[in-house]
TrEMBL record:
Entry binding sites for Zn(2+): 70, 73, 86, 88
Residue ranges crossing the lipid bilayer per the database entry: none
Keywords tagged on the record: Metal-binding, Nickel, Zinc
Record: residues binding Ni(2+): 2
Keyword Amino-acid biosynthesis set for record: no
Protein name: Hydrogenase maturation factor HypA
Originating organism: Nocardia jiangxiensis
Upper classification of the organism: Bacteria, Bacillati, Actinomycetota, Actinomycetes, Mycobacteriales
Family note: Belongs to the HypA/HybF family.
InterPro entries attached to this UniProt entry: Hydgase_Ni_incorp_HypA/HybF_CS (IPR020538), HypA/HybF (IPR000688)
Amino acid sequence: MHELAIAQGIIGGACEHAAGRRIFRVTVAVGTLCAVVPDALRFCFELAAEGTLAEGAELIIEQVPARGHCHRCERDFTLHEPIPLCDCGSADVDISAGTDLRIRSMEVSDPCALPADAAATARR
């Protein structure tokens, strides 16, 4: 299951950029050719987040469709199968989208102000 390694990478990158702030939500774009199972990634994200700034954070997965360009007919098209074949029958295809996985955004909190010392405040 490569989703665990992916989830650990997402958590590591998010925590690094959070600069000590608590992470509430992480949005990732996942290409359909990455062979990532969304439910498995969510499960692994929860496991990998335990004990980190992202513990309890929500993971939002945006699926990015695979796109290709056929050199024979010069057509751009959406890939519906993992094997890049154009409708014209050509396999001379460049994949232009759907293979990447990236963190698109994350929602973090700023640390709250420290509460006033009740004993010191009462003496004033």
